[in-house]
What does this fold into?
Amino acid sequence: MPRHFDEELEHLKEKLLKMGSLVEVMVERAVASLVDRDSRLAEEVIVSDNKVDGLEVEVNEDCIRLLALQQPAAKDLRFITTAMKISSDLERMADQAVNISQRAIELNEEPQLKPYIDIPIMTQLAQKMLRDALDAFVRRDVQLARDVIPADNKVDALKNQVFRELLTFMMEDPRTIPRATRLILVSRHLERIADHATNIAEMVVFLVEGKDIRHIPRE
It folds into this structure.
């Protein structure tokens, strides 16, 4: 039974990593669909959300079954509850990628308002946060998880920079308001993706140390 239980936990980890890989690709392609003005790519991102949703359901079902049948001890109990929360964050990140794709389809039907500079940078930062958070989860690396958390401030700063720049466009020419508003929404979706990556990193700290640091003020 212990060996079987360990195998179940390993399969659970593999499903989470598969979810994470799918989400990272979705985020990358969603922004690429905007930058490259490729609405077909955006449509593919929207369709692929079903795969992430399906994996989240599988992860939750696996976790509930393990909790009900195995009565895990403290360390394994933390792993299972952490897995459930991570899968929820990943699913929400996929939803944000869908939101970006929907805005990209709308924006691609109009002339491009401005060169996309900060948004791709935000995307790279958010993707790295996700990769590092999941890597920390696999390796149970608390320091790597803690390093992810302050990176969220960089994404927040870029979101604010995007807002200020687009606000200037809207003030100078009200005709730009619809396009500028959609780009502001894209930056907010990316900020939310970074927030979810931060949540995953914080859950890794809980997994390894048993400390809940989610509501501790940080710089």
Q: What stands out?
A: Helices lie at 2-35, 39-70, 74-108, 118-139, 142-172, 177-209. The chain is about 85% helix and 0% strand. Residues 2-209 form a domain with the Methane Monooxygenase Hydroxylase; Chain G, domain 1 fold (CATH 1.20.58.220). The two ends are 45 Å apart (CA to CA).
